Amino acid sequence: MESLLEQQFGTPVTRQPVSQPVSRQILHNESLIHYHQALSDRSIFNNCLHGLANTDYHHTEGTDTALYRTADKAVQKHINMLDGLALFLIFRGRDRKSQSVVATGMIRETRGVKIFYANNSSRQASREQRDYIDKLVEKFKNQHPVNDILKHVIQFCKEKIVQRCKKLAAKFDMNSTTLREDVSNFYGIRSDIAEYTEIETTLRDQKWIQKTSSLSTALDTFLRCAAKLTRLSTTQDIFDVLCLAYALTTITPGMENLVKPPIWRRMKKMADYRKICIRTRDIVRTIGGSSASITVDQLFPPDELEYEVYNSTLEALNTWSTVYPSDSPLQDFELQLKEYYPDAKEGQSGKIKILFSQHCELTVANYLLRLKTATKSLLGPIEIGCSKASCFWCDLYLTELNDILPKYGRVINRATHGNLCNGWMMPQALPGYENVNREVLDCIGRQVETVFAYGNDRRRKSDSLPLDREALPQDDGKEEFAEPKF
Ligand SMILES: [Zn+2]
Question: How would you label 190-212 residue by residue, b for 16+ Cβ within 10 Å and e otherwise?
Fold first, then answer.
């Protein structure tokens, strides 16, 4: 009978039952190391992923993807728009993590567009959420006022929006119970500089702040309002905060130079909601407004699956040593891992349950690829929007997929945050693209082997380790930091 893992991975690779692991000798003798054979064992795969996440989670810096950086301006703009649309479809906050990230894709048609979206959960949108989406589309088509559209979005995307607002307040050590009333001028902007007066005047003239308010007071109030927000806050309270974030980041040039980059990024994330309402409304007008055909369909990943793995990082990684074509299991966390991976977490003995899910960008990418292959319309890039940057594994998967796609039909998404996520589920191999899955598994195997090499060989991380290099997705462009899309 086909195992769950085989269903996930598509064409099963030949493997030994767990009770009779592939011998190290066999793997060695083949000389070409097929790590995917070892990783076709579900338990080894899950444990290795968990072990890697605990060992080297912040694997690389966040960057825009090479394909995005080198894409046409029009393609970049389109992906940015899809990123934005994803924000309008996040109905849950951190409490339902798998529903708090959304990816989007789009197919253009003669009289309009078909929009597709997915999150990491296979849970279907509720009737109320469906109605919200239908109404949102109608509002865009009928060119409703931006503020009306934004308020509609706030009602349904409240949890995520509130989280974003509170993250800014948290940067100033404020939350709903600590409003720091004894402090003023949190932003620390000097009032005797030209930019201050310019921003203050613009905000007053355009009625974003009261005529009698100083910029400094308005910013303090803005932060306290953001800190106070909860999921029970009124739409109007949230709306006011988002609007000032929009004004501060969009219509007052110079503000960017007065605040630190992390603060600026958080403010922009709050401002995005209003900005995207405006952009989307404009785009809908250009494709025909009320006469445009716009559909929004949810795509479903496989069900999330909970698996038990070893809590201890060493134990989890050592499941690999049953098939690992090398010397010995890791024995000592401090000496063999911590020394080379300072952020490594030891974990306790026993087992831990981890929820594995297929990440939304891969669900959308594979669906659009299948659709384009079926209709033989692989002529343009497959543009994917996402509410946050992709993890290391999704980025790797897309890189391997793009390696075998024609140049003009590649999948392009905005960015990767480079983290080795735990609980990552490999999509079922698409017919004709089975090699993608094998390559990804081989790369995961190389990552694990690299950890063992550091540990057992006691090599410094700075020493050249070809395996580690190979394990990284190819990226020949210059590094450019993306704004993490949380
Ligand atoms: Zn991912």
Answer: eeeeebbeebbebbbeeebbeee
